[in-house]
Fold:
Amino acid sequence: MKIPIQNVYYLLCYAWDKLAERDVVAVDCLDATSLLDLFARVLINGVNHLLKRGFDRGYELQHEWTGRLRGRICFQEAIRRNAAVTGRLPCDYDELSYNVLHNRILKATMRQLIRARGLDTKSAERLSQLCRLLSEIEDIELTGRVFGRVQLHRNNQFYDFLLKVCELIHRNLLVSQRPGFSKFQDFDQDEQQMAHLYEAFVRNFYRTHSRFQVKGEDIRWRWTGADETSTRLLPKMRTDVSLTAPDRKIIIDCKFTPEVTQHHHGVEKLRSTHLYQINAYMDNLQGENADTCEMMLLYPTVDRPLSADFTFKGHKIYIRTINLDQAWPKIHANLLELVA
Structure:
């Protein structure tokens, strides 16, 4: 399933709940030939925005032997190295610096992109220029753990959007056979990554644009375990998207699969495992609107639409698709029509 680059960008911004940042980092996706080029432009425009408003700074611990006392004197080190001879003392002090972790990650990601195979030449040149402007920011080796160490606050939340882009780039850069270079793996062809993205997108879209209270909901099994050990063995049952209003409840199960249906003895059928899942929701759902809750299996598609309706014990069950290979306003309208 090949989704247009511009629409992948919209999916990401919704999934990350970064619609305002998307508008700040205006990116013309229409002439981008790959996701790699798209993300390079996002970082270029994002860093340019930071250059205009000012890069974030933070206090960094510095250690220095100095004749001018500042901060905290490291007495044990001074005694061990005979500071009386040198006339200087080792001191620890905090200094306001641009060399904070989130700036280092931005620079390191841009340097990785420059060496990525297939990047547009103009984007590579612009990234190189920006790296030179950040000369006082030290290099850092990117690992998955580095991103988890970043601490942001309300005044520098714009970085959160750019760091999510950086993490996505890092996760999908593969080492190339050419030393020092890498190749970007188009994650939109990775079914597992896209399944998580698609679910988060649908949830945040309805949270932003509908009248419903939106969340993922835990549904407790109605089965009674013979003992605690038996009860603990029951798997967790959690909805992808639960839409709740005083007069209506809809559970949407998001299924990102290349083919909506399967063939059994040459006959096209709905996927039985998906039907079993929503049937389990209906059997175990409790609380307000439980008996009339509507169920929907929502599949993405770029070619053939599918629509089927069923009823069971007071529940309406919908099988629907959303075409992601169309202009975004049309996708927006279609999603709202599904819950109208």
